[in-house]
Protein: Glucose-methanol-choline oxidoreductase
Amino acid sequence: MSETTFDFIIIGAGTAGSLLANRLSADASKRVLLIEAGRKDDYHWIHIPVGYLHCIGNPRTDWLYQTEPDAGLNGRALRYPRGKVLGGSSSINGMIYMRGQARDYDQWARLTGDMRWSWDQVLPYFKRHEDHYRGDPVGQRAKDAPFAADPAFAAFHGTGGEWRVDQQRLRWEVLDAFARAAQQAGIPATEDFNRGNNEGVGYFEVNQKNGLRWNTAKAFLRPACYARPNFELWTSAQVSRLLFEDGADGRPRCVGAQVWTGHEQVTARLPRDGTGELILCAGSIGTPQILQLSGLGPGALLQQHGVPMVQDLPGVGANLQDHLQIRAVYKVRGPKDRRGLTLNTLADSAWGKLKIGLEYALRRSGPMSMAPSQLGAFTRSSPGLDRPNLEYHVQPLSLDAFGEPLHGFNAFTASVCNLQPTSRGTVRIRSARFEDAPAIAPNYLSTPEDRQVAAESLRVTRRIVAQPALAPYQPEEWKPGLPPSGPDQSDADLARLAGDIATTIFHPVGTTKMGRVEGPDADPMAVVDAELRVRGVTGLRIADAGVMPLITSGNTNAPTLMIAERLAELLRRGQR
Structure:
């Protein structure tokens, strides 16, 4: 901590913060500070893809959040993983590269009144940092890629960027059979989920490189930022609150942050001439917590905890959205009841584990290279919908929860989530102490629409599994389980069963949402404007998944990178 005054202060060295640090420190005339509450990403299980099992629930890499007991989950509370390490959640997530649907971004543009958030306008920002394996003419596996010569490839994908998008290094017979069953149920095959319409079934593409996890610390911090004398990184440094002074225009101006280093409070400041900016990239949980601790949030909440108010912003910590995955488990016997039909039995012996380890050591392939989910599918819960509203994450394994042991029988898991939930939750501080985790209340399945989709999604799952392609595996529903009367269950029964087995798929967004902040159509719950400036103050912006007004129709890591890329360009233009 050789200096404490910087032109840009970025809080959170996760998905968005790492990219922003890279882009902003490229200007050698600007001093950039990146602050991360977690440690460096030197834990070996971060980089071995299957290591997410050792990172989730581990205080070395995870904030260890828990939700409040949830009525929609029949009173259950959930573990709520968030990355606390360089790379943030990109160091512990499922590595799936997924942009969502074009309609998602067109809706953002409508809600913000800014067409720069429409699909056509954000697509170049996805491509800017992308390094897609199919676009590499000399790539080791490019010759095997069915779209290698697709003339439309360059219209949707980029090459040569920092963010590697690779194909998975394994296949499973039972997953191939599920894909065929999905097609028999009317879901078309696809080789690319990322062209604006992700309907179809196929293997996910992943953020890996040479069989290793590719997190944002590798992609954007090393080696570029570390070699720049104008860049500084503080790790194991937790922001306790932001600092504000009266601005020249009468609005509060953010002038820096207080940071707890583990043994003392250090103040990181922006220039006194008012030219600098502080950017919050602490995520959908961390960012609203920091704002509320700093006096920006719902007035009654701040008063309750004795936090002096800087700006009454009722939307801070509201509008929490997440994808709730309903984890249906099917026992299988296979054409032959053999060891290795699924990971459950492949890894249940010392010899099986040794084979898995040798395959990874020699070829960087096999189960140790696995993302948590390998096969994906997007479809509709009912035929009348105009776009897919369900996403499947299908896995050749089963367990009670991530971090728990695999079951002792062969099984696959077909997790299905509602991509456009209408339920909304909250993130609220419990006290004025920065050390205390906030109260997270997702309020899953709290609307009739979400309960209806939950019931319909279980029926869609059963319809897929009943197709001829899976018949040789003799699938038997273990969770939620069929009643003695058979599969004819009411919507209410199915929604209750979904509440018994559903869990987060780790996509919290929306807690500091973008929206119109001026004019007759202003949204009183909007926290940032279309340029990500925090409402009612100056010198402060937000760039993380919390600014999404509506959750994207898919995994949320890639959209968060796009948001950071857009803000980086805005800031560079502003500096010029």
Remarks:
- Residues 61 and 105 are 31 Å apart (CA to CA).
